[in-house]
């Protein structure tokens, strides 16, 4: 039994895509809608459409991926229209927004609030790839100001996508800001580990074009950082649900995210590499792990990470 509850809504299983992968066009979104995942999220959007950074802007690596897409997207209205037409009985749909300014975010939120059939709002505080735009999630004052505006403008439950943090004082400070907002109902940890640099020794060159090769890391590289962030916010935000993202390529990593406290688990790099069949494979593997341990429900182990 892989069923779970998210914000009171029952879901068939805890899997979904990570934003950015397979979710930019309606064709891709329809592919996700037909997959085994019980939830899905749209590509982070901006007020106006964007083509993003020059290519190559994604590279597949033995231990994961590096990307600097630069927010290519069709503009928020496109995703809001998709949400309005979406059969919300079929899957839980999240709409990710990543405004270039606070005013852009407020304008998008106002429109989403007015929608009849809206998706669950996720405010992305952590895009590392737009030149000249620092990540809001690394500036706690800016984060508080943005959440204050979102909280006022949007009268429904919403969530945030966080960047990875690496210092206990930053976990404390971020959680303290998040806990000021009771309608902030979920927290997605983590976005890519920002601004890594991958170098090919044969060509003596970087592997992606934007930003002289600097880009966000995903996949196996980031699993321990992802688990740390999931568990840090699970402990600090008892009234919120955590969505785990980072390094999930088999049932084992999905199991670890759930053990660390995640309510839902996202797949990014592995979805990019394998396509939506990845959800069937990971669900089968997770079922086998649970059976071998004698767990008959996710609730039997979720958040029950042992310490020494
Ligand atoms: C992009 C990357 C991110 O990690 C993100 O959160 C939003 C957008 C991008 O480069 O398109």
How is this structure best summarized?
The protein is of the alpha/beta class. The protein has 9 helices and 16 strands.
Written overview of the protein:
Helix 4 links the parallel strand 8 and strand 9 (158-162). The protein has one domain (4-52, 71-193, 219-300): TIM Barrel (Alpha-Beta Barrel), CATH 3.20.20. The chain has nine helices and 16 strands. 33% of the residues lie in helices and 22% in strands. The model has no long low-confidence stretch (mean pLDDT 97). The chain is an alpha/beta fold and 308 residues long. The longest helix is centred in the C-terminal third of the chain and has 17 residues, at 277-293. The strands form four sheets. The chain has an eight-stranded parallel β-sheet. The structure holds 3,4-dihydroxybenzoic acid (DHB). 3,4-dihydroxybenzoic acid (DHB) is lined by residues 20, 44, 52, 68-71, 98, 124, 126-129, 191-192, 216.
Properties at a glance:
308 residues; TIM Barrel; 8-stranded parallel beta sheet; 4-stranded antiparallel beta sheet; 9 helices; 22% strand; globular; binds 3,4-dihydroxybenzoic acid
């Amino acid at each position: 039994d892989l069923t779970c509850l998210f914000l009171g809504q029952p879901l068939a299983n805890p899997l979904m895509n990570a934003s950015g992968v397979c979710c930019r066009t309606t064709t891709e979104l329809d592919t996700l809608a037909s997959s085994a995942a019980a939830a899905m999220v749209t590509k982070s959007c901006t007020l106006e459409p964007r083509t993003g950074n020059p290519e190559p802007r994604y590279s597949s690596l033995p231990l994961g991926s590096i990307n600097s897409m630069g927010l290519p997207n069709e503009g928020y209205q496109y995703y809001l229209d998709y949400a309005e037409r979406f059969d919300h009985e079929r899957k839980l749909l999240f709409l990710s927004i990543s405004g270039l300014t606070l005013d852009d975010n407020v304008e998008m939120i106002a429109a989403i609030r007015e929608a009849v059939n809206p998706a669950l709002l996720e405010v992305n505080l952590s895009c590392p790839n737009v030149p000249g735009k620092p990540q809001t999630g690394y500036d706690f004052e800016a984060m508080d100001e943005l959440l204050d505006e979102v909280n006022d403008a949007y009268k429904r439950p919403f969530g945030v996508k966080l960047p990875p943090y690496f210092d206990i004082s930053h976990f404390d400070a971020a959680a303290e800001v998040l806990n000021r907002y009771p309608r902030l109902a979920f927290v997605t940890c983590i976005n890519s580990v920002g601004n890594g640099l991958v170098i090919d020794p044969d060509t003596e060159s970087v592997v992606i074009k934007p930003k002289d090769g600097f880009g966000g890391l995903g996949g196996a590289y980031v699993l321990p950082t992802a688990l740390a962030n999931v568990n840090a916010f699970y402990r600090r935000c008892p009234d919120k649900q955590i969505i785990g993202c980072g390094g999930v390529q088999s049932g084992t990593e999905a199991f670890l995210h759930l053990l660390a406290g995640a309510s839902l688990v996202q797949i990014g790099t592995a979805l990019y590499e394998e396509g939506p069949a990845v959800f069937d494979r990971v669900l089968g593997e997770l079922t086998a792990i649970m059976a071998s341990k004698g767990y008959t429900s996710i609730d039997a182990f979720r958040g029950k990470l042992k310490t020494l």
